[in-house]
Amino acid sequence: MLTPRSGQPAPLITCILPAYNEADNLKEMVPLLCATLPKLSDRFEVLVVDDGSRDATEATVLKLSEQYPVSLLSLSRNFGKEAAMSAGLDYAEGDVVIIMDSDMQHPVEMLEVFYQRWLEGYDMIYGVRADRSDEGMVKRKLTRAFYHMLSKSADVEIQPDAGDFRMMDAKVVRALRSLSERKRMMKGLFAWVGFRSIGVPFKVNPRFSGETSFGIRRLSSLALTGITAFSSAPLRIWMFIGASVSLLAMSYAVIVVLSTLILGTDVPGWPTLVAGIGFLGGVQLLSVGVLGEYVARIFSEVKGRPVYLISDYRRPVHVESQDKASTKDASSV
Ligand code: UDP
Ligand code: MG
User: Fold this and answer.
1) Which ligand is nearest to the CA of 20?
2) Do the domain assignments include residue 223?
3) Nearest CA-CA partner of 68 in 318, 242, 238
4) I want to staple 60 with a disulfide (CB 3.0 to 4.6 A). Which of 23, 74, 115, 139 is the partner?
5) Strand runs (DSSP E) across the chain, as ranges?
6) Residue limits of the Glycosyltransferase 2-like domain (predicted)?
7) Looking at the domain assignment, is residue 42 inside a domain?
């Protein structure tokens, strides 16, 4: 079948694995990947981004790299998954780049389906969670509410059930590299860059070993980044609340004037006064808080610190020796 990408040489595939304390999982994940990727192309590499792990992740990857084409990119500390993925994207050399979790939650079988889509001409293929029954009710409800709010207010459409499990063409990677913002929600940025995209449903596996590092604190901080980075609706809401409160206050003033004129003066109204002052104080503090959140984001962007820092970058041993071998071959011809 003639496809938009047929007739091109076999692409180099880079699979990025962000990893934070994933030694046990990587021992399973890397061999599995290296058994699957050759079905797509004979040129592939795995790039593990060690996000400041405190376990044996680094040693495990170095050991694996003796046998498999695995590179290790070590960040100088734990910067978070968003930064780890950005680092991986900056260093990925592939014509096709995959991002997936290191904990075996993203099924490698899906890569063949993704790749088929890429051959058909799609530039970004993302996994869509077929069901979220593995998550608790509260988390599911909160996630739904968050995406509902975001879809109403954001300037791009962010798919609710899509995650970071993706395959993308090198041109999408180049586009992502050109984005310089520091506080990142990659899912939003993936949506923002556009390109021919398609979602493919998949079922999330249970975590192979260890525990998730996305607790309620990390998730809510990511949600806040998502909202402030892709929508200014929270700022606008306060304009409407302010306008409504002023309108109410004005109507109340009219009532007070009229009742004084008609019924004469007496000095009640103390509770109304206190309630009014308290309410307005609360509303003002809240709105200043929302404003502060955006100012904090501006502050962090203006400081211009890098998204991550690299402490080490190691290419696989046998790739280096292969390179040497091929140079030798070339020189001996
Ligand atoms: N991860 C990371 N840095 C972090 C936290 C997580 O690179 O600070 C990686 C982690 O190793 C895994 C992926 O991000 O490969 C998803 O993390 P996790 O499984 O904890 O999250 P969940 O699957 O619950 O969303
Ligand atoms: Mg996980």
Assistant:
1) 1
2) no
3) 318
4) 23
5) 13-19, 44-50, 70-75, 96-99, 124-129, 162-169, 197-202, 310-314
6) 15-175
7) yes
How many domains does the structure of the chain reveal?
2
Same domain? For 182 and 132 the reply is yes
143 lines ligand 1 (CB under 6 A): no
197 and 294 co-located in one domain: no
How far apart are the CA of 211 and the centre of ligand 1, in A? Answer: 9
Is residue 226 domain-resident? no
Ligand 1 mutation pick, 28, 132, 134, 213, max ligand atoms within 8 A of CB: 213
Element (H, E) at 141: helix 137-153
Expressed as residue numbers, the domain containing 265 is 233-303
Mean pLDDT, 10 residues at a time, the chain of 333 residues: 67 94 92 92 93 92 91 94 94 94 92 92 91 78 82 78 91 93 87 91 85 81 83 80 81 82 75 77 82 86 90 74 41 35
Are both 43 and 186 inside the same structural domain? yes
Does residue 7 form part of some domain? no
Q: Please indicate whether residue 221, judged by its CB atom, sits closer than 6 Å to ligand 1.
A: no
**Nearest alpha-carbon partner for 71 in 89, 96, 46:** 46
Cβ 187 under 6 angstroms from ligand 1: no
Ligand nearest to the CA of 50: 1
